[in-house]
Amino acid sequence: MARSRPEPSAWLAGLTARPPTTELGALQLAWLGDAVWELHQRLRRCNEPGRSHDLHGQVVAAVRADAQAEALGRLESLLSPAEIDLVRRGRNRAGRGPRQGDAAAYGLATAFETLLGWLFLHDPPRLVELLDHLEENDP
């Protein structure tokens, strides 16, 4: 019996907003958003055939700073002014990043993660909407 493939963002469907009692800073939101993005990427690949080593490689490629920066670029035209402000806050708090890395890509990746972290806590339906947009427009 063939199993239907669930939507990658379906795991978010049952979540309700549960903001923390204190406001988290941009770097805390980015740390959380990084976990949200990695889980999303892992769930995308759960039903794909392949060795775990190969699937892991695909996830690693998707969570790299340059891939996250590219994902943010695909979302920019859809973002509200408040979301753009979150992105700006995350980018400004990013720092330089790894010594050998691209500082601009690292800043955009941190901005992307900040947005995902905030949406995960405050607006899960909007997070689903943006993740679905990325899925539908995956190059």
Description:
- With 139 residues, the protein is an all-alpha fold.
- It is built from six helices and no strands.
- The chain has one domain: Ribonuclease III domain (Ribonuclease iii, N-terminal Endonuclease Domain, Chain A, Orthogonal Bundle).
- The chain is globular.
Quick rundown:
The chain has helices spanning 26-44, 52-63, 65-75, 81-93, 103-122, 124-136. By secondary structure, the chain is mostly helical. It has a single domain (25-44, 53-136), classed as Ribonuclease iii, N-terminal Endonuclease Domain, Chain A, CATH 1.10.1520.
Mean pLDDT: 85
- The domain count comes to 1
CATH topology: Ribonuclease iii, N-terminal Endonuclease Domain, Chain A
Characterize the overall form.
globular
At CATH level 2, the architecture is Orthogonal Bundle
Largest sheet: none
Summarize the amount of helix as a percent range.
55-70%
Identify the CATH class.
Answer: Mainly Alpha
Distance between the termini: 31 Å
State which percent range the strand residues make up.
under 5%
Rg, rounded, reads 15 Å
Topology (elements, then pairings):
Blueprint: H1 26-44, H2 52-63, H3 65-75, H4 81-93, H5 103-122, H6 124-136
Helix pairs in contact: 1-2, 1-4, 1-5, 3-5, 4-5, 5-6
Main attributes of the structure:
139 residues; mainly alpha; Ribonuclease iii, N-terminal Endonuclease Domain, Chain A; 6 helices
